[in-house]
Input
Amino acid sequence: MNVSLNRRSFLGTLAASGAILSAPAVLGQSRPRVVVIGGGAGGATCARYIAKGSAGAIDVTLVEPAEVYYTCFFSNLYLGGFRDFDSLGHRYDKLTGDYGITHARARAAGVDRDARSVTLEGGETLSYDRLVIAPGIDFVDGSVPGWDLSRAGIMPHAYKAGPQTRLLKAQVEAMPEGGTFCMVAPPNPYRCPPGPYERVSMVAHVLKARNPTARILIVDPKEKFSKQGLFEEGWQSHYPGMITRIGPDFGGDKVEVRPDTMEIAIDGEVEKVDVCNVIPAQKAGMIAAAAGVTDDKGWAPVNPHSMASRADANVFVIGDASSQGDMPKSGFSANSQAKVAAMNIRAELTGSTAFPAKYSNTCWSLIDTDDGIKVGASYEATDEKIASVESFVSQTGEDADLRKATYEESLGWYAGITADIFG
Amino acid sequence: MAGRAGIFMIAGLAFFAAPGVSEVRASDTGPPGNGAPIWAECSGCHQIGPEATNAIGPNLNGIFGRKAAALDNFQYSKSLARAGRDGLIWTYETLDAYIANPRVFASGTRMSYPGLKDAAKRADLLAYLRDFSDKPRDIPEAEPTARRAMPELSADVRALAGDPEYGAYLASECLTCHQTSGADRGIPSITLWPTEDFVLAMHAYKQKLRPHPVMQMMAGRLSDGEIAALAAYFADLKE
Ligand SMILES: Cc1cc2nc3c(=O)[nH]c(=O)nc-3n(C[C@H](O)[C@H](O)[C@H](O)COP(=O)(O)OP(=O)(O)OC[C@H]3O[C@@H](n4cnc5c(N)ncnc54)[C@H](O)[C@@H]3O)c2cc1C
Output
């Protein structure tokens, strides 16, 4: 592994030497070390803000196996044909080049919290003063009977962006005329609450043009879902008669899938489908459990003021993997939490100021061409949880100009947040 | 550490004239006749009355209850058009704020009019304008509660950048949407603005005069000092 230093980060290091002298945690030591596991919305933001804010005073290593990160956000727009796949990909060049972050291209296999070290899949170990765990989600085994990861090549989840997303798109495009697209929606909590329903909208958009007699079946274990009134209004006006949702009152919580025969059984009743998108129940990315910071529900509880793990003050858990209270699991939330964690880590390691935490989130969804909606809230830290303070949501019956502006806002947001995450 | 942040915020307030409450109340709105001479401030650009057409500015017939930037045959600035699309309606309250300082609503506004600072004159002018609206007698004279005045920057807010770390932390929340590069597709650019315009815009969201829900929420929880620190930070931002 090489730390690539360019002129900018070298100058930054010089400028920061004053900070090192006043830093309580590092007197007489070499630069304090932060290891970040996971280079997604949370981890990459956190690595960047620590490196940028400390101007080289902190040694930051980002552990992430991928060379290119594909955002799950906007992957539904790719399914709908509104974006190409490459536009979802982001590299780590600026993080390494402009900010002097080391990219360890490997999967973290274990964490020894007593020794303060992370073991990589290749066997190498990295020691840390502070560890950030940001691995996103993994799926709960057995949550959809008949499905496990080995069947994802037949019934894709497409809930981590990449080959799975492309596979689902190809399957939708290859559907026979008048065929059935089935989505098995996840139980709460899961990443991106409106995500499955935005996906249904985008699939409907494609089918309306290519295969208008096809139908969409949502099998849902939840009674209600995010922005439900807005989605249902949109489906009614853009895709009348195409989408059916089976909630728990009709067996939506009792579904079994049979990938070999492309069948699903809802409360025992068997139905043949052409595409089956299974989005299983979720939990924190496996490394969080391996580090021993998760609870019995599979998520990692954190201190709402700092995002530090409740189990270990030297470990911070951000993004989807954390259990923090009212914030939805979203890229926006992960980015927001990462900044609070970065500020606190810098304060602990270099003596910079920790200001009171501020969090916010906004999630946009696209229903059809130029028909965008949004929901958002601001949050504050209480001792018990991150608590919602104020919120807003698009209204039903808004005029087309406003919906179009809302969609355009989401394009601005995507450009903004990806620049904020990856530099 | 928190102590340091707290002191800073208090120091920030000292740079503002104490935000008072504007004098426009229902009882203060004078008879329309008093507004006629004040209309001279506007008539160079605007027409009103039966013969009125659009001139440098849009005609102001029926302005009460009209959506901002609603005339099809007038070329509005991007920012006033955006405010209209977001749902800004001209009422006593919004007109009063706009006439006091047009930049409260539209930072890039083409109405190059510095604003009418005298609240009593504004009240007279509003009464005059109201007479050219449909059923003027049905228009309530004023919002039941008086409008909180925009803070006036009494000193150079750049002085507030005393703690750049503070501005940088607050600003990090904005950068999820607004780009440091100043790119403005879908979401406007907020870098390199005059600090005073920035502060006005943020207060207009905070007081829910500007209509956008995201920005009302973001600005709503910022103190005056925090807004000033952000203005100073973004005014000087270099990528
Ligand atoms: C279809 C869909 C649509 C969405 N739309 C939106 C949206 O519009 N807006 C929004 O805000 N959010 C949206 N989201 C949610 C958003 O994608 C996630 O909430 C966000 O990515 C969470 O960030 P994270 O950093 O926690 O995890 P991730 O972004 O998933 O990043 C985790 C990273 O950790 C790496 N990793 C995992 N385990 C290890 C390990 N052991 N060692 C090393 N690296 C590891 C992974 O490779 C991955 O790169 C959407 C999600 C989906 C699926």
Q: What stands out?
A: Chain A is about 30% helix and 25% strand. The interface with chain B takes residues 49, 53, 332, 335-336, 339, 343, 347, 352-356, 358, 360, 362, 374, 376-378, 389-392, 401-402, 405, 408-413, 415-417, 419-420 of chain A (CB under 8 Å). The CA atoms of residues 5 and 100 of chain A lie 5 Å apart. Confidence is low (pLDDT under 50) at residues 1-28 of chain A.
